[in-house]
Write a sequence for this structure.
């Protein structure tokens, strides 16, 4: 093996590395890096510092761990049944651009919309800064974008700082509103201690990250003024200069503060990335595919079950031969009876409670809460996923979404009014899950409330939900 | 107020077919419109409007059957599809192209859920028909009762509003009145359900602290309207029960868009 690779090196690789073409390219590349990024290639290898190694290891570990956990969520989503949402891509991109990117459904509540917009824009734009931090971390450079971007760099850093303040304002406001404000939609049976803590953790982490970012800039700026070390004059600091008086004046303390904040900020971001798969905050990623795969039909339209169509056709026409259908139950007893889209929605839900706050059943004290339907679905499919990881793919527990998570009373309280569907800022449809579970109770178990069974009987026998004779249907003509 | 019934000519599809005729439009009456006493009156009013503007129409009469909507919302897809397929057979048998319904539930079901089962028709709700007639200048607000100065509010039925994005048509029928149109706090896409949808009409509500139609009454009272306009027979029942419950029958009238149209035009 060793000999083989040695031979390979000698016969195949070395000629390439020594060829004039490669040498020209190599020297041009070095010059390019040197002029544009002040990286001295040979020196880079010679002076590779322990910090960079640590950074690369942390980054690789964070990315690996995140992909692993995101992959589990993907696996869990795909436990759902098939549903075709591949049609009409042009319309789908439009919906995604409007609803997810453009946040069009947030505006119904203007205050929350503005605050959320600060955090959203802050998150998206400050990612440019995170990219710089990543590159600096890997190459041991400092503010690598400052040279190629020139004066634009100052504008960018200044912009990031303003955004960071807006994010801070929004996060503090949200924390106060959640914990002191008594907003009704932040409570409810499903808002147990974990969902409440989760929301607070997210806000606190964001506050810490933004504080570290601004403190880092303040220290950096002070070091720039002192002409200290590699702290080249770069960036404008409209906000962090206000923090300067709070910082010490000695360059060694400043450097320590700047470095600590730099490390805290980037490790914090990577840790936050790995918190996402365990948190409702995962919506920042899934909001996009979830809106892309939105239901494009009118909200009033419920799906026609193809499996039922075949049976009804066979019943009405004995000569009809139904196509070979997959054996599955009617409706949904557990999450695996739902579609992958239902499950994606469950993982997209950020528990904002707009659905529940407009639900007529919930507002009149009934048990139903559309948010709980989504959270229960997510928790149940996560439980199944965890069981698969622990006990292998054939493991089955004796639990189900129906009864163990969602009670029948909740399901029978729904008026199918679509208020929850309309209210969701990321186009989640709790009604579809409710309907699927009703289908299971009625068609598989024959367990509908007695009065509904009467109604079914009337429709079947008299063609009307009430006990009137079909023959009297035209009497309205006379009854004036 | 009603004219002698002999003035309205209502033919069934069977009668028309026997004469070798096809109507311009089929009026799908619906179960509530056929059997519920209050809704029957609205059914006749829709006929009066059709008659007044000279649209040739017919009804299915005893050949009509439940669309299957309440069964489908309650989870009984079997019963729904049985109903749907039988109805589609009847409709296709008469070569129906265009349907007007007196109920948002029938409207939604036939328009959205029948095509997948072989029933393709142009379906409109009666509020959309009224809007079209107003736009074409065929319907006005003259010759009858005046709503001048009255405060009117409109209650959006879920399956017309959120379900199918029909918000403006019913409002159009009210805008031509010389009345003050006010919106309730929860209106249009924020509209509060009357409590009857999803087959709740046919069962007792689940345990709670209030009935949904009474919750809606707080919006009605806050709007200070003296007329609540409805466009759905189930909303009609729920709203009337609500008004009765808060003992405001003397002050607040619940009227369907079609009834209001008939009244202002003295039909």
């Amino acid at each position: 093996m060793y000999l083989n690779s040695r031979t390979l090196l000698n016969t195949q690789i070395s000629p390439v590395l020594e060829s004039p073409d490669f040498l020209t390219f190599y020297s041009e590349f070095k010059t390019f890096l040197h002029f544009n990024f002040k990286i001295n290639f040979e020196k880079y290898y010679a002076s590779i510092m322990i910090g960079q190694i640590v950074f690369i290891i942390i980054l690789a570990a964070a990315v690996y761990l995140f992909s692993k956990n995101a992959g589990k969520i993907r696996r869990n989503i795909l436990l759902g049944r098939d549903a075709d949402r591949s049609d009409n891509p042009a319309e789908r991109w439009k919906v995604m651009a409007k609803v997810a990117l453009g946040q069009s459904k947030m505006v119904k509540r203007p205050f929350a919309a503005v605050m959320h917009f600060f955090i959203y824009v802050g998150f998206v734009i400050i990612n440019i800064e995170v990219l710089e931090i990543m590159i600096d971390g890997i190459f041991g450079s400092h503010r690598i974008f400052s040279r190629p971007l020139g004066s634009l760099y100052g504008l960018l850093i200044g912009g990031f700082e303003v955004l960071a303040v807006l994010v801070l304002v929004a996060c503090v406001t949200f924390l106060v509103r959640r914990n002191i404000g008594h907003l009704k939609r932040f409570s409810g049976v499903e808002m147990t201690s974990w969902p409440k803590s989760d929301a607070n953790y997210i806000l606190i982490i964001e506050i810490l990250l933004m504080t570290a970012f601004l403190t880092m800039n303040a220290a950096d700026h002070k070091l720039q003024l002192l002409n200290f070390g590699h702290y080249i004059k770069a960036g404008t600091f409209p906000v962090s200069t206000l923090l300067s008086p709070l910082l010490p004046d000695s360059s060694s303390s400043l450097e320590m503060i700047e470095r600590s904040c730099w490390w805290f900020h980037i490790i914090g971001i990577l840790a936050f990335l790995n918190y996402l798969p365990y948190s409702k905050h995962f919506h920042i990623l899934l909001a996009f595919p979830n809106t892309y795969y939105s239901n494009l039909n009118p909200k009033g339209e419920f799906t026609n079950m193809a499996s039922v169509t075949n049976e009804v056709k066979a019943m009405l026409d004995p000569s009809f031969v139904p196509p070979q259908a997959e054996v599955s139950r009617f409706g949904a007893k557990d999450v695996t009876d739902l579609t992958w889209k239902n499950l994606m929605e469950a993982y997209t839900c950020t528990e904002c409670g707009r659905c529940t706050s407009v639900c007529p059943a919930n507002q009149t004290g009934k048990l139903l809460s559309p948010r709980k339907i989504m959270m229960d679905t997510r928790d149940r499919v996560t439980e199944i996923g965890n069981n698969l990881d622990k006990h292998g793919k054939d493991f089955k527990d004796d639990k189900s979404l129906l009864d163990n998570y969602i009670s029948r009373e909740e399901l029978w309280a729904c008026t199918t009014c679509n208020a929850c569907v309309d209210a969701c800022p990321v186009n989640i449809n709790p009604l579809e899950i409710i309907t699927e579970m009703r289908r299971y109770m009625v068609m598989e178990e024959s367990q509908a409330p007695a009065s509904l069974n009467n109604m079914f009987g009337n429709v079947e026998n008299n063609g009307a939900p009430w006990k009137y004779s079909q023959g009297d249907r035209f009497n309205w003509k006379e009854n004036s | 107020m009603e004219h002698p019934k002999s003035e309205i000519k209502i033919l069934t599809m069977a009668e028309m077919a026997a004469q070798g005729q096809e109507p311009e439009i089929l009026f799908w009456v619906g179960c509530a419109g056929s059997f519920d006493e209050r809704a029957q009156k609205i059914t006749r009013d829709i006929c009066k409007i059709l008659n007044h503007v000279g649209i040739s129409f017919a009804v299915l009469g005893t050949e009509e059957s439940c669309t299957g909507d309440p069964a489908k919302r309650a989870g009984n897809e079997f019963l729904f599809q049985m109903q749907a397929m039988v109805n589609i057979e009847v409709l296709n048998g008469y070569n129906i192209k265009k349907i007007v319904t007196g109920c948002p539930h029938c409207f939604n079901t036939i328009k959205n859920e029948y095509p997948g089962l072989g029933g393709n028709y142009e379906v409109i709700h009666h509020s959309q028909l009224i809007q079209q007639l107003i736009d074409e200048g065929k319907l006005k607000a003259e010759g009858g009762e005046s709503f001048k100065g009255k405060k009117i509010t409109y209650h959006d039925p879920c399956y017309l509003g959120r379900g199918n994005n029909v918000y403006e048509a019913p409002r159009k029928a009210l805008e031509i009145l010389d009345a003050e149109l006010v919106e309730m706090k929860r209106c249009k896409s924020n509209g509060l359900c009357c409590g009857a949808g999803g087959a709740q009409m046919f069962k007792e509500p689940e345990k709670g602290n209030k009935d949904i139609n009474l919750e809606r009454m707080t919006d009605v009272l806050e709007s200070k309207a003296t007329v609540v306009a409805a466009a759905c027979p189930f909303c009609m029942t729920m709203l009337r029960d609500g008004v009765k419950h808060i003992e405001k029958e003397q002050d607040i009238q619940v009227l369907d868009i079609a009834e209001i149209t008939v009244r202002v035009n003295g039909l």
Notes: The beta strands of chain B are 25-28, 57-58, 98-101, 122-125, 151-154, 180-182, 227-230, 253-256. Chain B touches chain A through 72 residues (CB under 8 Å).
